Every structure is written in C-alpha cells, then in structure tokens.
Amino acid sequence: MNDLERAKEGLNGHTLCLLRGEEVLIRDERGIAPMMALLAEGKDLIGFSAADRVVGKAAAMLFVKAKIKELFAKTISRSAAEFLEKNGLPFSYRTMTEYIVNRDGTGRCPMESAVLSCNDAEEGYLLLQQKLASMRSI
Questions:
Q1: Helical H runs in the chain?
Q2: Cα 72 from Cα 90, distance rounded (Å)
Q3: pLDDT, tens digit, for every residue of 78-91?
Q4: 28 touches 14 (CB < 8 A)
Q5: How far is CA 104 from CA 31, 86, 108, in A?
Q6: φ/ψ of residue 16, rounded to 5
Q7: C-alpha 133, offset from chain centre
Q8: pTM of the full predicted structure?
Q9: Matching SUPFAM superfamilies, A to Z (predicted)?
C-alpha cells in the first residue's frame, strides 16, 4: 500500500492525514487551520502524501506551498482542482463542487473567497494569514 492509500485510511474520523514513509501527521481542526499551523511551525512537509476532507482553493494553495507530493480530497472545489492542475500537484477526489460553502451554509467559504483571484501559493498564504487575523479581531 502506498503513502496516499495509507493517508486515505488514516483520514477516517479526522480532517487531515499526512504521510511520508513511517511519519504520520493526523489533525482534527477544521478548515485550513491544520495546514496553516504546520506551515507556521516550519514543519517540513516536502514529499508527504495528504488526504483531506474538504479542499477549496485556499487549502490547495497551502498544499502547493508545502510541496506535498500528492493529494486526495473527499470534496474539492473546481477552483482548487484548477489550481492544483496548474501547479502540477497530482490529486484525486471523491466529489467535486463548484465552490466550498461557508459554515453557515449561506455562501462561499471566506478563505476560498480571500484567494479566489490569486494564482500564487506564496501570495495566497499571505492573504490567508491576513484574512485569519482580520477574522480574529472581529
């Protein structure tokens, strides 16, 4: 069984599973929080295979920035898939949706909205940091 298949299995009951050989990282935070935390910690994620419950464009940018080797998403947005394709990150998914819905179910996810017109993973990361900071100060 390869790393991606093992990461998919590790996703059961969790929001994110990253796997590289014997190194396994499992997270339960919602949204982009797990990847933002790992990147902020400076965790070397190069070459990891990732399985995530929901991948919008914001999360896709974080996976590209982290240099993840391959990705599986239970649900992925069209803009996330396009971004991953343009950046050469192999991915598979169970369901594709037009966009990721916010937690209230009333519109687009604010993180995906924050990076919708951005096409650079580094710039996207900075935009997401700013968006999270502005949401915390409300």
A1: 3-10, 33-40, 57-65, 78-86, 110-115, 121-136
A2: 9
A3: 999 999 999 999 99
A4: yes
A5: 13, 30, 10
A6: -150, 135
A7: 19
A8: 0.96
A9: Cytidine deaminase-like
* Lookup: tokens for 91: 């991915």
Q: Taking all residues of the chain, what is their mean pLDDT, rounded to a whole number? A: 96
CA 57 to CA 78: how far, in whole Å?
A: 8
Mark 37-60 as b/e (b = at least 16 C-beta within 10 Å). Answer: ebbeeeeebeebbbbbbbbbbbbb
Q: Are 49 and 28 in contact (CB under 8 A)?
A: no
What count of residues does the chain have? 138
Helices (H), 14-87: 33-40, 57-65, 78-86
Q: What are the residue ranges spanned by the domains of the chain?
A: 3-136
Do 93 and 74 form a contact (C-beta atoms < 8 A)? Answer: yes
